[in-house]
Design goal:
The chain is an alpha/beta fold. It contains 11 helices and 9 strands. The chain is 40% helix and 24% strand.
Length: 276
């Protein structure tokens, strides 16, 4: 069953873990390459320096953990992820780097609650807000950030994938509204961070991304295999029902959005950087 805290439906942790365990081997090829530029910008604007202690929450396969460790060594970088498959990929990537990186298998919110106060000079959170109760967690983040420390957040916004929502509304006649389990705007994120003392905004921007697919089913396969389509509603459905839904939505994408270039999917990568 999904957890529900406040107004935000979120995925059960075990469902998230199983999903990303399955996609770990293809994650970087199917997802990370498309968001390389905003990820590089987050890393740059965190302004890491030697001696900074860093927490990389939802570190995935460790690609950006490695980049940050190179900048902050000899201090420790702690990479946190709830997917053992992702952590295995991170361990392999970091095995020959000879850098002070510690990998931790934990939910990000549990790590935030258990870490010592003021224990990190920088915290990175990349594409993880869809998998936790961000309205409750973001105000708690400031507790673990040292004075003068920075937080960099990269996330999708709720306006992502308008093609999919349009097809869904058409299929259901608007009777079953479904929204992305992520914030609506950067301002919403900034306001929540400020509750935890992270009040100095040093960067806020959006990066628009459009992907093209040969057909609707290829687009739906990408959603599933990249992990991006891990919506809370899907955890209630059987694999057969998910496959049937994919086929119906794929046809809708073909009918409504196909152009000479193919079938598009669009989303916004939103970056926020704050200082304590």
């Amino acid at each position: 069953m999904a957890e529900k805290t406040g107004e935000h439906d979120i995925l059960a942790p075990k469902h998230v873990q199983k999903t990303y365990d399955k996609v770990a081997s293809t994650y970087d090829a199917l997802w990370t390459q498309h968001v390389a530029e905003p990820n590089a910008r987050i890393t740059k604007e965190l302004r890491l320096k030697k001696g900074d202690r860093v927490a990389d929450l939802a570190c995935g396969t460790g690609l950006h953990t490695l980049d940050m460790a190179k900048l902050s060594a000899p201090s420790e970088v702690v990479g946190v992820d709830y997917s053992e498959g992702m952590l295995a990929g991170a361990k392999e990537r970091l095995s020959d780097a000879n850098l002070p990186v510690t990998l931790v298998h934990a939910k990000a919110e549990d790590f935030i609650d258990s870490a010592a106060p003021d224990s990190f000079d920088a915290v990175s959170m990349r594409f993880m807000l869809a998998y936790l109760d961000w309205a409750a967690v973001l105000p708690r983040l400031g507790r673990i950030v040292a004075p003068g420390g920075r937080v960099g957040i990269l996330t999708s916004l709720s306006n992502a994938l308008p093609q999919l929502w349009s097809v869904w509304d058409k299929l259901t006649g608007g009777a079953l509204p479904m929204t992305a389990p992520v914030p609506d705007s950067n301002d919403q994120i900034v306001a929540l961070l400020a509750k935890g003392g992270l009040t100095n905004v040093i960067g806020s921007w959006e990066y628009q991304i459009r992907l093209w697919f040969d057909d609707g089913m290829q687009a739906m396969a990408w959603m599933k295999e990249s992990g991006y389509g891990t919506h809370p509603a899907l955890q209630y459905m059987t694999p057969e029902a998910v496959q049937q839904l994919m086929q119906v939505v794929a046809k809708g994408l073909e009918d409504d959005f196909r152009t000479e270039q193919g079938v598009p999917l669009e989303f916004t990568a939103s970056g926020i950087l704050v200082r304590k």
